[in-house]
Write a structure and sequence with these properties.
The structure is a single chain. The protein is α/β, with parallel strands linked by helices and about 290 residues long. The protein has two domains: about 70 residues; about 180 residues, 3-Layer(aba) Sandwich (Rossmann fold). About 40% of the residues lie in helices and about 15% in strands. The chain contains twelve helices and nine strands. It has a nine-stranded mixed sheet with strand order 1-2-6-5-4-3-7-8-9, sandwiched between helices. Strand 4, helix 7 and strand 5 form a beta-alpha-beta unit.
Length: about 290
Amino acid sequence: MDEFRKRLLHLHLSTSSWKTIFTILKADPTLERLYKIPLANSPNFSFTDPSVQAAITYLRSTSIETNIQQYNNGKIYVLTIFDEIYPQALKETYQPPWILFAKGDISLLREKHLLAVVGSRAASSYAKRTVEFLMPELIESGLVIVSGLAKGIDALAHKTAIENGGKTIGVIAGGFWNLYPAETKRLAMYMMEKQLVVSEYAPESKPARWQFPMRNRIISGLSKGTLVVEAKKKSGSLITADFSMSEGREVFAIPGDILTSESEGVHELIQQGAKLVKSAKNILEELNLSY
């Protein structure tokens, strides 16, 4: 790992604030002065921001070499936004991660045709049948399935993609050494060997509630479109769909039972202009793919 990437990784580990890293990079694009600048009398840095001060203090009190060795031992790739393999689609989104930690087949990040599939953690039998119905044709078309390794639709999307001989990427909150939830840990471990799991949070990080909405922007940011299978009116799946809409990506929705709250979210998306999906063909046509 070259010196710039080491410094950027160290900076990333020092703060959870995207803007703090941006502030420091803007003042010192090569990060050559990262460990040299005094806390006072530094006009190029905004030390009025406590998070910047905290980051600099951390950088001076810890070494990055131990972290790098641990990640290497764990076969964890550290990808910076400046690396060639960093996905262009994600780079073009609002506040893309400065660092991605990846474990598994990183060649999947070079794939051009990715589809996010998200939905309820308490998926109904109808939702499960829908995923199983759509997946074979989606996989046959060459789509890589992206989801969040949550229980319910996320896990089903990953599993069904694998069962159909396809490729899939899991995006998690927290780090690889603190997988959550327990129900999908075995699947996540398998995907770290045979597929791909990514996170913007260091492997030693424990998942926090605020990280899940942030994780959703990566799911949508990697993908050409987002398919919402089943979702209540207020759910993480709708956050992912909102990210897709704001980035000009396609949003697809599976219509459900109008008498249940489990489908209120997808019906609202359809009212807002999401593509109503009755078959895989509806998705493939919008993405200019063919079966």
